[in-house]
Design brief:
This protein is of the alpha+beta class. Helices cover 34% and strands 14% of the residues. The protein binds iron/sulfur cluster. Iron/sulfur cluster binds at residues 7, 9-11, 21, 24-25, 51-52, 55, 57-58.
């Protein structure tokens, strides 16, 4: 993780805050609903799961 706490998200294809990553990851694990995170509007659950599952930030 970089010093300014931004991480390169392979789903959104841009740098995002660690907190947003955490929220999206929670959606991928079905801990929170997709509708709760507006940044991932337009992505399917499958796309989110696939991206976060293979993402180095989730290791
Ligand atoms: S875990 Fe998911 S939300 Fe976080 S950076 Fe990776 S792809 Fe993006």
């Amino acid at each position: 993780m970089s010093e300014n706490n931004l991480i390169k998200c392979k789903l959104l294809k841009k740098e995002i805050a660690a907190g947003l990553c955490q929220d999206i990851f929670s959606v991928s694990c079905k801990l929170i609903k997709r509708e709760a995170v507006k940044e991932i509007d337009g992505y399917t659950q499958e796309q989110i799961e696939k991206a976060c599952e293979s993402c180095p930030y989730t290791d």
